[in-house]
Design goal:
The complex is a heterodimer of chains A (266) and B (329).
Chain A: E1 5-14, E2 17-27, E3 32-36, H1 43-51, E4 58-63, E5 66-67, E6 78-81, H2 93-100, H3 109-113, H4 117-136, H5 152-165, E7 170-174, H6 182-197, E8 201-205, H7 209-215, E9 218-223, E10 226-231, H8 233-238, H9 240-247
Parallel strand pairs in A: 3-8, 3-9, 6-7, 7-8
Antiparallel strand pairs in A: 1-2, 1-4, 4-5, 9-10
Helix pairs in contact in A: 2-4, 2-5, 4-5
Chain B: H1 13-29, H2 36-62, H3 69-85, H4 90-112, H5 119-137, E1 154-155, E2 158-159, H6 162-184, H7 187-197, H8 199-204, H9 209-235, H10 245-258, H11 265-284, H12 293-312, H13 317-326
Classes of the chains: A alpha/beta (266), B mainly alpha (329).
Bound molecules: adenosine-5'-triphosphate (ATP) and magnesium ion (MG).
């Protein structure tokens, strides 16, 4: 269950200013594509256009050739880790991940109200899935804690567990590693690599260049809402335009801490 | 996988179970001991609590407010009474009550729940005002004078007397509570609770938010409708005046005072408010008080209660009591 993502000439403006302008990219099924660029480049906006949180002004988004830009987010089958952690308050970490299984289960109000067999069947499945996913992101010990009490980094991981629980066809990760400690980043890197090996198509936004270079099959570079480069990590690293716009002569932005140390929230 | 699958909500399971059993036994034992006047209060309390269970689900779990819940109470009451007046078996009329209210909720809610914020609150309030004026015009429903001669509820050939209604209302409330509890801890219930704090993330998780909100709105209307049905047979008389906007506000106040997002909240809220209203009515009908005293007093008390609640008990009585109870340990 994996898809090819095709974004074609997508634009979105806010108050006359383009956040994303004429962006086209194709991510083959099973690829791990990184999207990088300076703050305000339009990375999160692009993700929102793909995920359905925002409507595009123009352009199309297709999964395996089927256009989805008019579909509401809940019918796109895309898992999302939002840059600003959006966890469900007043619910435990475990319950948060259980919500992730919504897309792949069916029991409705009637089944729930009357505790029909379908409810019990789904509930068992949801719990098992949620536990597996929570475990995969290393949050099993946090299961019964209210989600909003988790540190921000862990809230991001919680979002990842929730997204995985819905068996997405495409995964959008917007700075999933920020706020995590070095060891936790390593764990996350390993997990992302494994997800890719399992065949998931993944888009990753991350400011930690070393992290990105290590994981990505290809990298798309955005600046001022436009794609300024697209290629393998080595090609992108060597691209002079990318160096001026984003990477800087030292391959690392001056404002960023050294890769692999503490991450910063974007 | 590591270890056994944890329960979704493991807190205080056995304590709760005992508390519920005790309350159930006490409330079942109470009706025969009550004088007739207080028995009426008891029945109305249980019916109000039933409506409030729905309001609380809607407000606490779906983040929506209905300021016209009494209209579903009214729709249920008339839907049960009208056929019964024309000779349809009363139990069938009672079964129609929640269905009619639910259908009305779907028709009203489908276009509304797409909208955000307080649209539902205003729309439900408007619907109630419209319904009240329509009912006042509708001669076939008794018009402003009201619908009289509603037969008593007959269950298995036995005509219910006052005590019977106390137990009927008890069953209706118990059913509403059970359904609410079942919903909260289920796939659709979690989806609703999730959407209440982040619509974006809930939608990204595959939740069709509008559909879920419509469903819980419909469910809350059905609960109000069923309570309305019992109410119609109990009183034997209905008029538009029995369902003022004040009643809708009363349900909201009960839900807020009791504590949104709790199962016991509606019962506690309804009990507190009904008892308070009793005291106020006694005060307001003292000799020398003006005609409008009872209703002015109730409005004032609702206002004060809401403000006190928002200021000092933002989460309502039940969560506050729970916290106090836990403190010594
Ligand atoms: N909802 C919005 N309303 C108005 N402007 C917006 C909105 N969302 C994004 N923008 C603007 O669009 C531009 C792109 O923002 P976006 O968040 O997509 O950048 P980004 O590449 O994700 O940046 P960062 O690295 O800081 O996360 C910015 O100039 C931002 O101010
Ligand atoms: Mg961003």
């Amino acid at each position: 269950m994996t898809v090819e993502l095709t974004v074609d000439k997508v634009s979105r403006a806010f108050g006359g200013v383009y956040a994303v302008r004429d962006v086209s990219l194709t991510v083959p099924a099973g690829e791990l594509r990184a999207v990088i660029g300076p703050n305000g480049a339009g990375k999160s906006t692009l993700f929102a256009l793909i995920g359905g949180q925002l409507a595009a002004d123009t352009g199309t988004v297709a999964l395996d050739g089927i256009r989805v830009e008019r579909r509401p987010a809940h019918r796109r089958g895309i898992g999302v880790v939002f840059q600003t952690a959006r966890v469900f308050h007043g619910m435990t970490a475990f319950e948060n991940v259980m919500v992730g299984a919504h897309a792949v289960t069916r029991a409705g109000f009637l089944a729930a109200a009357l505790r029909l067999p379908r409810h019990h069947r789904d509930e068992r499945r949801i719990r098992e899935k949620a536990l597996t996913c929570l475990d995969r992101v290393g949050l099993a010990d946090w299961a019964d804690r209210p989600a909003e009490e988790l540190p921000l980094g862990q809230q991001r991981s919680l979002q990842l567990a929730r997204a995985l629980c819905g068996e997405p066809r495409l995964l959008l990760l917007d700075e999933p590693a920020s706020g995590l400690r070095a060891a936790e980043r390593e764990h996350l890197a390993t997990l992302i690599t494994r997800l890719r090996t399992e065949g998931l198509t993944i888009l990753l936004v991350e400011h930690d260049v070393a992290f990105v270079m290590r994981l990505a099959d290809r990298i798309t570079v955005l600046d001022l809402g436009r794609v300024i480069a697209d290629g393998t990590p080595a090609e992108v690293r060597a691209n002079p335009e990318v160096r001026t716009a984003y990477l800087g002569p030292e391959t690392v932005r001056p404002s960023e801490p050294h890769p692999g140390v503490e991450g910063v929230a974007g | 996988m590591s270890g056994p699958v944890p329960p979704a909500r493991g807190r205080g399971g056995t304590v709760n179970r005992w508390a519920i059993a005790v309350v159930a036994v006490l409330t079942l034992a109470l009706p025969p001991l009550l004088p007739e006047r207080h028995l009426a209060t008891f029945v109305l309390l249980l019916l109000a609590a039933t409506v409030t269970v729905g309001v609380s689900l809607l407000m606490g779990y779906a983040g929506q407010v209905s300021l016209g819940q009494a209209s579903f109470y009214a729709i249920g009451a008339y839907a049960a009474a009208l056929p019964a007046v024309h000779g349809v078996p009363s139990l069938l009329g009672l079964a129609l009550a929640p269905v009619a209210a639910a259908v009305a909720a779907v028709l009203l809610g489908a276009p509304l729940l797409r909208l955000r914020g307080h649209h539902l609150a205003f729309a439900t309030l408007a619907v109630q005002l419209i319904l009240l004026s329509l009912l006042a015009q509708a001669d076939w429903a008794g018009g402003a004078i009201g619908l009289q001669g509603i037969p008593r509820l007959t269950v298995l050939g036995v005509e219910l007397r006052d005590l019977g209604y106390a137990y009927a209302a008890w069953l209706v409330l118990a059913a509403a509570l059970l359904i609410a509890r079942n919903i909260v801890d289920s796939r659709p219930g979690r989806a609703l609770r999730a959407a209440a704090t982040s619509e974006t993330a809930a939608a990204a998780s595959g939740v069709a938010i509008g559909r879920h909100r419509l469903a819980v709105f419909t469910l809350s209307a059905a609960m109000a409708g069923l309570a309305g049905g019992v109410y119609a047979f109990y009183l034997g008389y209905l008029s538009p005046g029995s369902f003022p906007v004040l009643l809708s506000i009363e349900f909201v106040v009960m839900a807020v005072v009791g504590g949104l997002g709790t199962i016991a909240g509606p019962v506690v809220g309804a009990t507190v408010i009904i008892l308070l209203v009793q005291v106020l009515n006694t005060l307001g009908t003292q000799p020398g008080m003006p005609d409008y005293a009872p209703s002015v007093l109730s409005y004032a008390v609702y206002a004060v209660l809401l403000i006190v609640c928002v200021l000092y008990l933002p989460r309502g009585l039940v969560p506050a009591l729970r916290r106090t109870g836990r403190r010594p340990s």
